[in-house]
Specification:
The chain is mostly helical. 71% of the residues lie in helices and 0% in strands. The longest helix has 14 residues.
Length: 150
Amino acid sequence: MADNAMTVRQRALAYLARREYTRDELARKLAPHCEDEDEIAALLEDFQQRGWLSEQRFIEQTVHARQARFGSRRIAHELKEKGVSAEAIEAALPQLKESELETARAVWQKKFGRPPEGASERAKQMRFLMSRGFGMETIRRVMQGNAEEE
C-alpha cells in the first residue's frame, strides 16, 4: 500500500539513490507510474539542473564497471542502448581504446591461458574476444603476441 502512495519524484530519487541512470532509462522506468509525460519530462529536467541526473556520471560509472571485462565496441553499444548521446560516446571512446589491448590480453589470459593448438581453437579464441567487444586489430595483436610466446 505504501508503494502505491509513492510519488513519481520519490520513485525517481529512490532509483537514483541505487545507481546512475540516463535520462531515457529513468523516463522508461517512471512511465508506468505516471500518465503525464510532461510531468516526467519536467521532473527529469529539474533533476538535471540540480545535478542529480548526469549522463556524464552514467558514462563514467558504466565504463569503470565494464572496462576490465569488455572491449570498447561492446561498451559503446551498451551506452547507445541506454540512450547516451552519440557525441558523449565518441568522447568516451579514446579513454576506452587506451587500455583495450591490455584488457584484451588479460581477458584472453584468464579464459584460455595458452596459445591455440590449431586453426579451430584459434578461431574459437578469436570469436570469444569478438563477443567481448574487442576489434579485429586488437584481437590480431593479442593472438600474434601469444604466438610469439610459444
